[in-house]
């Protein structure tokens, strides 16, 4: 994927994760970072269980979204502690 595609995927996945998880947002930059890192985490998790959704950009957004939700959940746990 090109750098711009990583940013767009991260933005969409981070925004979706922030919306689904509800609560205070982290801002656009952190949403992008969480989305990109979520893609890495999601890709690793999906690889562990042997699933890859395919679908090009849509599949990448789904994987990044799942990973970003997990990262948002973890960051909120740490933030509360």
Summarize the structure.
With 81 residues, the protein is an all-alpha fold. It has helices spanning 3-21, 28-49, 57-80. It has one domain (24-80).
What features would you describe in this structure?
There is one protein chain. By secondary structure, the chain is mainly alpha-helical. The protein has one domain (24-80). The protein contains 3 helices and no strands. The longest helix has 24 residues, at 57-80. It is globular. The model has no long low-confidence stretch (mean pLDDT 82).
| Residue share in β-strands | under 5%
Total number of domains: 1
Number of helices: 3
Compressed to H and E, one letter per element, the order equals HHH
Would you tell me the structural class of the helices and strands?
mainly alpha
Average of per-residue pLDDT values = 82
Quaternary class = single chain
In which range does the helix fraction lie?
A: over 70%
- How many β-strand stretches? 0
Rg measurement, Å:
12 Å
Describe the main β-sheet briefly.
Answer: none
The low-pLDDT segments are none
N- to C-terminal separation? 36 Å
Q: What best-fitting shape do the alpha-carbon axes yield?
A: globular
Task: Give short descriptive properties of this protein.
globular; 81 residues; mainly alpha
